[in-house]
Amino acid sequence: MTHSETLDLEITALAFGGDGVARHEGRVVFVPFTAPGDRVRVRVVRKEKNLLRAAVVEVLRPSPSRETPPCPYYGRCGGCQYQHLTYNSEAEWKERHVRETLVRIGKIPDPPVVPLLRSPEPYRYRNRITVHLRDGAVGYLGADGKSLVDVETCLLAEDEVNDALWQLRRRPPARERWTLRAGAVEGHAFYQANRFLLDALRQRVAAAVDAPVPVLIEGHCGVGFFTEVLAPRFQRTVAIELNPRAAAIAGAKSLPGTTIWQGRCEDGWRHAWNTARGEEGAVALVDPPREGLGATLTAELMELPFRQLVYLSCNPATLARDLALLSPRWHLERVEPIDLFPRTAHIECLAILRPAA
Predict the structure, then answer these.
(1) How far is CA 29 from each of CA 24, 80, 142, 173, 176, rounded to the nearest angstrom?
(2) What kind and span of H or E run contains 215?
(3) What is the pLDDT of residues 312-337, one digit of tens each?
(4) How many CB atoms lie within 10 A of CB 236?
(5) CATH of the domain spanning 198-355
(6) pLDDT tens for residues 187-230?
(7) Which CATH architecture has domain 6-61?
């Protein structure tokens, strides 16, 4: 088999990340921008030991779950992976991917995953984007991870953000990256990106935090997006944030009974427990970056006697890994997948844990 050889394949599934999956002579074949049910002609682009990677030459028979991507950059731009699928199909596969990841990595035989919370709209939802600037082009990294795709309008961004993109393109700064935000986004720091799900996300987290205890310790609090709705329910709250600008915004809200601790979560966790007198009863809320909890914070959550752990994750794989590490101390009650980033492969998950019996 040569790299230029073509094959006719039936796509039977989607891999986590969005590639279609087929089989040929005992090997798995990954084919981007295909849908389960597609019959496709592909060109082999890379051979590995037990798998092939291929590119679509022609869709011979389209799947019922396929639709025409509305974006002219789709397929070249690396921002989206699912515009060729109906949103119903995308949502179904994302929920399935969460389950499969928890089984495969988390070693949870029957994970308690509830139905995916879908975005009311799959486009125009982003209240902030980060673009790259190179050789006069302004846009996103390409699907190849190397090239830069010059983008005039992003269909995932709300109108105010696209207006800011138009202004940036007229007068590009001498920088390699630039973040554009809608006016509702607080400060130059991390903020939840799906404007249609902001209230629903807060409500989900608020409903999950239900242990009747006096103390909340929150890690990776950002600008206080969750802190401001949760802190009034507790006698004492300590919220930890690494980014100085985000911590300053959270602190400026002057929430009653709340201390904002600026620094690394793993450095401040034990201090927060002692300061808030966590031994009187405490809930832990964590919202880590894609890398997950890390060894130090995992060890703290294993040792300190929290009454409840609520874990908001932007990476199902590291969530599954962390849940496996926490399982001797914590019982997983449920996982709530949330589609904060439609048309992309990203999935948010809210995990609720109680002390193991």
Answers:
(1) 7, 21, 22, 42, 35
(2) strand 215-219
(3) 999 999 999 999 999 999 999 999 99
(4) 20
(5) 3.40.50.150
(6) 556 678 999 999 999 999 999 998 899 999 999 999 999 999 99
(7) Beta Barrel (2.40)
